[in-house]
Design brief:
Blueprint: E1 2-9, E2 12-19, H1 26-33, E3 38-43, H2 46-59, E4 63-71, H3 76-86, E5 92-94, H4 96-117
């Protein structure tokens, strides 16, 4: 599996699932070494690469988010079936506007928790 890191923000990382050539824990180890706890997945082949990446990352305890408009499959029925019936067991699947709202709220909450838990001088 080849995953390209597109953008990192706080504890979130945005990944594009490109292909499922090999499975090992290098990606998971990298994400955990950077204290990443939440991953936003997007890409092609919803029923293959995206599903495989979601299974790998969910098995490692990472929280996953998927915006429906940011994924595709060459077989529309298969992609829709995976989005409706399989991926919701592994990830939070949103329409893009709901995804933007949810992500903004979660980032704000994460920043609040970090602010409250930081040690203060004195």
């Amino acid at each position: 599996m080849r995953l390209q890191m597109c953008k990192a923000l706080a504890y979130y990382v945005f990944l594009l699932a490109a292909s499922c050539e090999c499975y090992d824990n290098r990606l998971v180890d990298l994400l955990k070494s950077k204290n990443v706890t939440k991953v936003v997945l997007g890409g092609l082949k919803t029923g293959q690469s995206l599903l495989a990446a979601a299974e790998l990352l969910a098995d490692e305890g990472l929280l996953l988010y998927i915006a429906r408009e940011c994924v595709a499959d060459d077989k529309i029925d298969r992609g829709e079936a995976v989005l409706q019936h399989v991926l919701p067991f592994l990830a939070d699947v949103f329409h893009f506007e709901d995804f933007r709202t949810q992500l903004a709220h979660e980032i704000m909450i994460d920043m609040f928790v970090e602010f409250k838990t930081v040690k203060r001088a004195g």
